[in-house]
Amino acid sequence: MSVKVFSVAKNGICGKKGIRPGDLLLSVNSHEINDVLDYRFYTLGERLEIVFLCADKRKVTIKLSSADTCNRLGISFETFLMDKHRHCKNSCIFCFIDQLPKGLRKSLYFKDDDSRLSFLFGNYITLTNLTEADVDRIIKMRISPVNVSVHTMNPELRVRMMRNPSAGRVLTYLKRFSDAGIDINAQVVLCPGINDGDELLFSLRKLSELDSVRSVAAVPVGMTEFRDGLYPLESYNKDSAAAVIDLIDSFNMELEKQGREKIAFPSDEFFLLSEREIPDVSYYGDFSQLDNGVGMYALTADEFRSALYEKASDDKNRSVSVATGVAAYPLIKKLSDEFMSRFPNSDIKVYCIKNRFFGEKVTVAGLITGTDLISQLKENGFTGGRLLLPSVMVKSPAERIFLDDVTVEDAEAQLNAEIVISECAGSALFDSFYKT
């Protein structure tokens, strides 16, 4: 297979050698290049011999010494992965994408399950898309960690939950990765009465038998109002959420009695649902499961307070509004009150945005639409000015659009606001308040 060059930097190594957009990258050190992982892996060699096929059918060979690096080649490709994303082959009973209404960004409806995205961006994969060759390549290239959506270590239950006949068989890949020293972070989406309770304890114990499992995140199933015709699932409540926390804490105590470190962590949402106090940062180890909402509350509060007490109190006038989801609202309100106590001439208003679009069981800030944001701020008396939003509400810093394709500029115009996008970290939140 060859990969088409999309752009060439004039001052890069390839540009100076006459490589142009549309030329084909054939090989690196005689290895065929199929995707971005091949490209990154084989261009790490001490000496490189890179072969291109030009538009006029000439082959051009570029030889580089160890002093040169892949980054200096100056070429990019049409897609980041260099080929197509791999579509999910499962039909999970809890799939969130199946619960999406019409009218959202087209990209939101694509179900990816691509091991390359696991390595590059931390995406979680189910293993059902992997071939034996993929497993061998992960081991050969030392692609680590691999982030796996396990859900259960019971093969038969995994087949039923994911509705894929190979879902149980591919669990054997976990041992192959572990035996090869490939680190594994696992995710378990818990569905009440299905894979929690004794099934969860079984899964945790089986995962703990694999030496390379570094962490296991337990997250509650997400439920929107758009579940007509889908598998009947229940949501967690105060008591059932508390039971999950207790089971995980008890399991971790088993490990600690064996002289081992804890590996299993309930997501912050379980603490919120159970109405229990969020643990402090010491509970979460190295925070390896932040992307699953594990420890985000504790880390945000710790970072914010560290920054807060490094600054001397002053009498500067500061005014800013903050909008966030139901889940984060109590924390952001508490931190803003602490800020105003230390800086008494500050005026920080925090607005709680309920999710009318997906349904009020969805409480995270990252699933708030522009329409909900605008309408509820107006309803709650927002009169304009500086408005702080968490970065998870928009697609990216470069593409400032909400899930429903409303742009930040649209929201600014309708709200008479200057919208500031803040990273989801306690230190960034403090800076957004302090530098207002």
List keywords for this structure.
14 helices, Rossmann fold, four-stranded parallel β-sheet, six-stranded antiparallel β-sheet, Pdz3 Domain, globular, alpha/beta, pyruvate-formate lyase- activating enzyme
Structure explained in plain terms:
The chain has about 425 residues and is of the alpha/beta class. It has three domains: about 5-75, PDZ domain (Pdz3 Domain, Roll); about 95-290, pyruvate-formate lyase- activating enzyme; about 300-435, Rossmann fold. The protein contains 14 helices and 14 strands. It has helices at about 15, 35-40, 115-120, 130-140, 155-160, 170-180, 200-210, 240-255, 270-275, 295-310, 330-340, 370-380, 410-415, 425-435; strands spanning about 5-10, 25-30, 30, 50-55, 60-65, 75, 145-150, 185-190, 215-220, 265, 320-325, 345-355, 385-390, 415-420. Strands 1, 2, 3, 4, 5 and 6 form a six-stranded antiparallel β-sheet that branches. Helix 7 links the parallel strand 8 (about 185-190) and strand 9. The longest helix has 20 residues, at about 240-255. The radius of gyration is 25 Å and the shape is globular. The termini are far apart. The relative contact order is 0.07.
